[in-house]
Amino acid sequence: MNKKKYPVVNIGTTSILTVFVILCMVTFAALSLLTASRNARYNDQVQERTDAYYHAVNQAYQEIAGIDRTLQEYWADGAWEQAEPEYAFIIPIDETSELSVRLTTHEPDAEDASLYTISEFAEISTKEWQGDQSMELLPMDLD
Length: 143
Known about the structure:
alpha+beta; 1 helix; 3 strands; 48% helix; 20% strand
């Protein structure tokens, strides 16, 4: 009459724990996959943006080299007064930004043998900023 009593959850606990661990691993794998794909898309966008920027920079340096040759010719021919006091040009980077370059010419001296100074070499935005997303942080009752 001594019947052995078995625990009620003896076999089920191991199975439930195994299923829970597998679900956790599948969830973690899915989140890792989503994060990796999002990072890959972001990296592609950054790479395209960087390529476009450096392509514009290379074009700017080619333009500067042309201006430098022209200024060297003016200086060698003694026609420095024909040189413009300032050269400026803009090179588009993409649909929302462009590279603005400005050169200021000057006669060479003992300290500086160059014929120009790069006074601006900057990326500027062509897209107009719209600050229309205002938020009321604190209620302002001035009664």
